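Supplementary Methods S3. Input chains for the assembly prediction are listed below.
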Amino acid sequence: MKPILLHGHERAITQIKYNREGDLLFSASKDNKPNVWYSLNGERLGTFNGHQGAVWCIDVDWTTTKFMSGAGDNTFKIWDCETGREIGNIQTASSVRTCLFSYSANMAVYTTDKAMKQPCEMFIIDTRTIDDSISVQDPIMRIPVKGPRVSAILWDNVEEMIITGHENGELTQWDLKTGKQLSSVKEHDNIINDMQWNKDGTMFITASKDHTAKLFDSESLMLLKTYKTERPVNSAAVSPIFEHVVLGGGQDAMDVTTTSTRIGKFDSRFLPYGI
Amino acid sequence: MAKKKVDDKSSQNDGNTKSDGDLSSNDEEPNFSDPEGFVDDITDEELLGDILKQKPKETDGVESVIVVDGVPQVGPNRLEKLKSVINKVFVKFGNIVNEYYPVTPEGTTKGYIFIEYSSPVHAAEAVKVTNNFKLDKQHTFQVNLFTDFAKYELIPIKWDPPEPQPYQGQADLHYYLLEPDAYDQFAVVTAQGQSVQIWQNTQPDPVVIEERNNWTQTYIKWSPLGTYLSTFHKLGIALWAGPNFSQYKRFAHVGVQFIDFSPCEKYLVTYSPQGDPHNPDMKRIIIWDIRTGLEKRSFNPEGPTAWPIFRWSHDDKYFARIGSNNDALQVYETPSFGLLDKKSIKINGIRDFNWSPTDNVVAYWVAEDKDVPASVTLLEFPNRNEIRKKNLFNVADCKIHWQKSGDYLCVKVDRYSKVRKEKNETKYSGVYCNFEVFHMKEKQIPVDSVECKEPIQAFAWEPVGSKFAMIHGESPNINVSFYEVRVGQAPILLKKFEKRACNHLFWSPGGQFIVLAGLGSNGGGSLEFVDTHEFLIMNSTDHYQMSDVEWDPTGRYVITGVSFWKTKVDTGYWIWSFQGKILKRVNLEKFAQILWRPRPPTLLSEEKQKEIKKNLKKYYPQFESKDRMRQSKASKELIEKRAALMEKFQSHREQRIKEWMENKARRLALRNNIDTDELDADTENVEEEVVEFFIKEEVTVLE
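Predicted structure tokens for the full assembly:
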């Protein structure tokens, strides 16, 4: 297998996502322009132009018709996947840090940062029809998040609850019917960088700066397994076909100049998950 | 006493007035008196607890009274004057409540007085300070507590011998040596003593045998024979010993930072560089007897000196230090802790000294002074015989290295070819190095010389045997040379390894094997395990940023550590076999210190040791089968444990997958009845799309 290098971004990559079929790859970076690529050969299909700040989060719906992005310019945008045209724009009070389509893509969620004297908030909006009016529509639900900001988010596949990962390592489960917090656990000591479902959405894996990745049960938030490393973990995923997890991470970018490549441990690791 | 009576009276009065009130009540007024049979359930403490606290006790008065004897006897006309003089002396210690001057029928005072203070503390202070106070030439005060008179009067005439206390047997301090498999222990300290763990290096995996949080406040130290573990605290040192590491002794010395044990573990030297700000009288160096816990002698060091300031002879009989102006060697003897022969040994310009590890011989060197050359001298104790002296020329510096078995002494002499004086500094140029090897066990102690033109990075004697190793040269041309010393011969070069990346030498305690290590940030953490029998490099590897290398006391294992004190990332320790095979990697956040527990020297005679060595082949199979059994047992346990965990996980998974299947209808509803559980689950919805990519263009020119 030959790696394909994707040249297109001018600044640090913040998030990448495949569409459901895996033929397209979406990428976001601090250079304001999310890109979409053919995953087969790495050819760039297009860019989504319009943000004025670093793009922190992106997501694409299951039919690959709608794409959304949240950025440091205090906007949250929805795009038409096929044309790359901006079809919806919402002004927010602070940076948009995470965003996600629901399972049916009839709804979407985004969270804003606790910054500029604004609290961290979670917004759930209707995305069935998207036009200019979306910027003035009230969200379906607006949930204030007390405490540290949301750094990673997951939505279950029956649209009943959302799980948020926080800057201090906390995990919180929210009931979407009531907008209330269901339960909360704190198993990590540092920011949760990423969370991903396993294939059937019954378990998820968290990647944290506290040098560990952890596997949780989605219903009870029960800790199933801890994967220890010596470096911050930036991302983690569960294999859909094998009993493996893969972790990616390494030295913080800002510390890279002070460490040699040999001890930086910028590598991926495959680990068995059951035991 | 008087005060108490008044109080008593008033309380009685209180009772009276109350009953008076009851009596005076007339019919018109409601009856306040208690009904018959009423029991007051409120205690006095609840009602007037704050006042009761001040209630005087009988002892208050007596304990606050002092008796002053030796007071001038004066007539009534001068009584007032005397009172004012006495008052001036005693009022300093507290409030005088009462004073009494007994007088004769004629009115002259009797020469003793009573003074009562408001508190026994004041009385005690007055006694402490004014006893033997000289008022004038004729009068000296004898001051005592009033209670002391009663105490001494009551001494029974018949003396009962004290009951013999039952003997408290102490735990076996050497239990760890009785471990049947001769496993060694090591101690691990993490993050400023927050946690100390004692491990037993069992096979195949070490086990923790003791773990305590905040056991020490800085670091730990084993005693030289391994009997005691010492921990450092703000108020002093604690020693721990025995099977459960129970506290053995405490040595109070505020601000102690450094300690040193005497080689036989009889004495402990503690050093508090800053002293105690609240107690300026506390000496900064204290020598203690470990078994009794008593202070034997204390010192205040003059000027900055290298630790350990005191150096011990091998048998704990003597300890010595260099005098304050580098002009004398002060040798003290135990157990008297006085100077040997009551005087120090005048040696002008003494720079450094060291005791032989096996004999009562001191090697010291003296710097050159005008026309007198520098010299190295061997001095025997207690008779102070000079058994060997060697003059040296053009000496910049000397380092004294004794071989552990005391057979050889090597003095590394830094010599110069030119010297310049610049202001107050002496600058040497063209420095080269001589090794002066003293053959201690031969007649008249012959001395051989080895010269080395390159700068020396490290030098080390083989602890057992007759080899020494040194690292010399400048980066990147660092070489390691091995020499052997033989009877009646100059040392011969055995082997030279060229272009190595190391800066420290670590011989195995048993000799023969050596680890060449590159410590610190410049060293790169390189490790080479060398067998000096045939100069075979058994393994060449590294432990990045390594700061420590520790051989276990038997020479079977090596631990390399990256300490939190030196670097912040990847701290932890790795355990290697003596051949350089990695056995265990332990990455431990904030790992600070690791120390093997030392062992006392073997009790086997030399013949017996030789015999064992000769018959080693006989023992091999026994140990090997033992090791194999342990290995298979451990792996079996591990497999079972894993299988159980996996089973638990699988049953949990099955349950959750079942729930997932049940939700299938809901998922379908959300996605327009399109099954997206698998990519190709819904065959009707798959649309094949052909996308053409421009891959490559080839231009072929047709002729």
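Chain B is about 20% helix and 35% strand. Chain B touches chain A at residues 544-545, 569-570, 587, 642, 645-646, 649-650, 652-653, 656-657, 659-660, 663, 666-667, 670-671, 676-677, 679, 691, 693, 695 (CB under 8 Å).
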